[in-house]
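re: ur question from yesterday

yeah so i grabbed the chain u mentioned. its 320 aa long if i counted rite. heres the sequnce exactly as i have it in my notes:
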Amino acid sequence: METIRLVVSTTSGKRIEVNEFNPAGMSLVKPVSPPPSAFIPIPEGTKITTLQGRVPMAFDPDLQKSIRLHEYDGERIQPVAAILPPGYLQLYRPAYTAELDARRLPPAGYSLLGANDSGYVVAAISLQQEAQIIRVYETDEEDEIEQNIQQVKENENSRLYLALTSEKGVDIAAKFGSELEPNKLILSSRADLLAKHPATVKFFDSVYVEVNSFQSAFYERFQPSQSMSLQEALEFSSSLDTAQAGICYQVFPGLTDHPLEMVAMKDTLHKYDKLAVRLQNLPCDPEWYIEELALTRQHRQMVGITEWLKVYRQTIEGRG
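ran it thru and got these structure tokens back, copy pasting raw so excuse formatting
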């Protein structure tokens, strides 16, 4: 049987493959040992990041349980995570524990990374969406943004994807709109932020309202400062005058694949059957999100993202 090895980082930034242990993953708050079949070769465009202020967990195949690893070969170590490009969904997050003074992680979809004899692998599944989408973050350096714009200009099959999270991103979105054709641009954000900037939205052919949950309580807890309810956000998305308007459903193992969320998803997607749907890994600090939404109060009945995806695809095929 193929063995997946744990990958960690030293405090100096050197990545190490730990042959003795397998990676431990999280679906909600319990560490598990994902099967080798859950891993795929690391996709092009994946970013690998170190999770500072955290202690990695590993699965010990001899003890058949998860353990904490503070050191390896006499060096302090930290967990690492993969930030996947568009078109891939995480199956598990890396398992770790936070130190007492750990800062909140910056928003990103942190996926479990491992290694086999061929190189790095990630616990993820391909969505087989558009062939090439380049995602740009508001925090990217200006020269990096320029390079991405140029890359899209030179490649007729590529499109640029921007997820707005703040007013700062509006200026970046306007820059894209002035330099690229509308059909080369994809925009997603909170409904209230999009509603405040119709002049920027009009540059984009594809505009998506971000939804982390189809249950109102979880939607409102995630963004308590937003001025639109879930119902209002969905209605706003339906009213957008663009070539393609829709929902960007932000996937988080432990909520997305819970039976109650799945029922809400099916009901909503059938009700708003004209809206396109994109899937995206939820960008957030997982521990903060679990605590903020009180997800541990739910019954632990999650079906797993692979099984959830089957239900999602059946729902999409059955619309209209």
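noticed a couple things. Residues 5-126 form one domain. also The chain has a mean pLDDT of 89.
anyway ttyl
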